[in-house]
């Protein structure tokens, strides 16, 4: 049974040759926060941010100066950020490769999950790798999760979704030996088998939805009253994206009749949209002000996008 705490990657791993995005951690890492921060305000135009401004914004989120500078340096080495220098001032922006994967990943994260009509058949995918290809195996597992599969057994993954031509394209090039078929589940002798549904820990995922709503719903009254200043708006907006982005990856997208009653996917998304979009004006103004303090001029390329814009696909 897969648990939410076993998922390693936030974004698909098909960028492995050019960019290595931060792995998911139990909490928010400085690298993860840095990527979220830059994606939230510079993804549309790949705008440059002074490194001092990035450090200052991360300090408002509780990251030390040393931790922030280490995160920036590591992200640059991993191909996520690229730097430039004008005199004594250094600036960074997302690389073209990172922006591309973040745009695609961001669209997948915030788009509504629409379960397909189900014919009661399961797609079953078995794969194997030579032992020395551990990295390729991890990459394939990450991709399969993004495609709605979950591991019923080691090397045997299941999904209620049809195996389409797009799915074939997404799995091409991983170098694994694969077998794919689709059919109905037949229950063996009573008490000796596992249902394909057991591949998902729906109780744990439901708990994550409940925790998300309990954490973020109290923000709404202050947001509606206009009582969230710029620095707090940036922290909250980064925080809610950093938290919410894990949920659609965990959600199996199963047909409603296979899910527990009262599934909180839609209420959680509605709450995310209300807060993320509602905080955008104050957060954008604050990021621009912090950047201007180090450049001496307004940086018009800095801009907050809405959930709808991210879902539609930002240019990268």
Automatic annotation (TrEMBL):
InterPro entries referenced in this protein's UniProt entry, alphabetically: PaaX-like_central (IPR048846), PaaX-like_N (IPR012906), PaaX_C (IPR013225), PaaX_trns_reg (IPR011965), WH-like_DNA-bd_sf (IPR036388)
Superkingdom, taxonomy of origin: Bacteria
Transcriptional repressor PaaX-like central Cas2-like domain sequence ranges: 116-189
Protein's GO biological process: DNA-templated transcription
Transcriptional repressor PaaX-like C-terminal domain sequence ranges: 200-288
Pfam families to which the protein is assigned, alphabetical: PaaX, PaaX_C, PaaX_M
Gene3D superfamilies according to UniProt: 3.30.70.2650, Winged helix-like DNA-binding domain superfamily/Winged helix DNA-binding domain
Occurrences of domain Transcriptional repressor PaaX-like N-terminal (ranges): 31-97
Name of the protein in its database record: PaaX family transcriptional regulator
Source species of the chain: Actinoplanes auranticolor
Gene: paaX_2
